[in-house]
């Protein structure tokens, strides 16, 4: 297998994807945690127990941002630990990573603010609930650069879908507004990840198919292996609004199919594999 450095996109291709992201973000609806919602109107009393539990769950997931950010800075470092060629690629990616981190951190702040403003929990209780999970290390067992983007593609789209479905049943309109802003951001993050995965397919062809397959074969949403009681909690919130990361697989298949003009047998086998995982997870 080629080295990690030999497998990354050319810096120019990464710069193109990052540039497209910022061009799209420039036209996105800007929002700020402090002013986007009428926090005084937030009322957790309008939520079902399942919806309250879902808010607590997604707050923990979003608040683990330091761990997610560290994953990218550790695997795509911008320091003297890498050679000039890889540094240039990583520096282009870093432009996106810091913007993505700022937006995801706003998600964590908005959800924590909602808990406090709505009376779900007071500020100290929210801080304490987030401290334990937040100190856990987030790791992914990847050795090919495309895997970090294929994983995030699925995770961002699955999160977007869940926020949309939770918004549809949310009893409190303020929570609905929060989820609207979050789902729009996640949609843009998905678009960037899809753009990068497509670029890998165009540049490296079938060489990235097995690494992508490995991502799907072992896929777990963030904190699934570290958050105590994750699976019981995930099942509980799925009773409130559908929570199934394999809902994102059809979007990955579309990216795979659109990225290349001539599809090899191996390409078709990967698409079939992903489709079978979606069927089993439905």
TrEMBL record:
Lineage: superkingdom: Bacteria
InterPro entries: Fatty_acid_desaturase-2, Ferritin-like_SF, RNR-like
A single GO BP: fatty acid biosynthetic process
Gene3D superfamilies according to UniProt: Ribonucleotide Reductase, subunit A
The entry's keywords: Fatty acid biosynthesis, Fatty acid metabolism, Iron, Lipid biosynthesis, Lipid metabolism, Metal-binding, Oxidoreductase
Family: Belongs to the fatty acid desaturase type 2 family.
Protein name (database record): Fatty acid desaturase
Species this chain originates from: Amycolatopsis thermoflava
């Amino acid at each position: 297998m080629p080295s990690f450095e030999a497998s990354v996109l050319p810096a120019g291709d990464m710069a193109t994807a990052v540039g497209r992201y910022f061009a799209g973000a420039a036209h996105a609806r800007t929002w700020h945690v402090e002013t986007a919602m009428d926090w005084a109107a937030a009322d957790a009393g309008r939520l079902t127990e399942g919806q309250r539990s879902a808010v607590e769950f997604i707050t923990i997931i979003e608040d683990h941002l330091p761990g997610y950010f560290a994953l990218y800075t550790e695997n795509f470092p911008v320091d003297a630990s890498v050679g000039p060629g890889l540094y240039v690629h990583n520096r282009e990616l870093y432009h996106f990573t810091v913007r993505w981190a700022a937006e995801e951190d706003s998600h964590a702040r908005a959800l924590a603010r909602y808990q406090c403003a709505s009376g779900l929990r007071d500020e100290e209780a929210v801080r304490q609930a987030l401290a334990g999970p937040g100190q856990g290390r987030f790791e992914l067992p990847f050795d090919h650069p495309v895997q970090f983007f294929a994983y995030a593609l699925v995770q961002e789209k699955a999160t977007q879908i869940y926020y949309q479905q939770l918004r549809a049943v949310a009893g409190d309109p303020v929570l609905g507004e929060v989820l609207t802003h979050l789902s729009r951001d996640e949609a843009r993050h998905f678009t960037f990840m899809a753009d990068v995965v497509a670029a890998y397919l165009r540049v490296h062809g079938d060489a990235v198919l097995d690494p992508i397959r490995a991502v799907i074969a072992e896929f777990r949403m963030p904190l699934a292996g570290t958050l105590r009681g994750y699976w019981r909690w995930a099942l509980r919130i799925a009773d409130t609004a559908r929570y199934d990361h394999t809902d994102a697989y059809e979007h990955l298949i579309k990216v795979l199919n659109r990225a290349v003009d001539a599809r090899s047998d191996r390409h078709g086998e990967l698409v079939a594999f992903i489709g079978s995982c979606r069927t089993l997870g439905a």
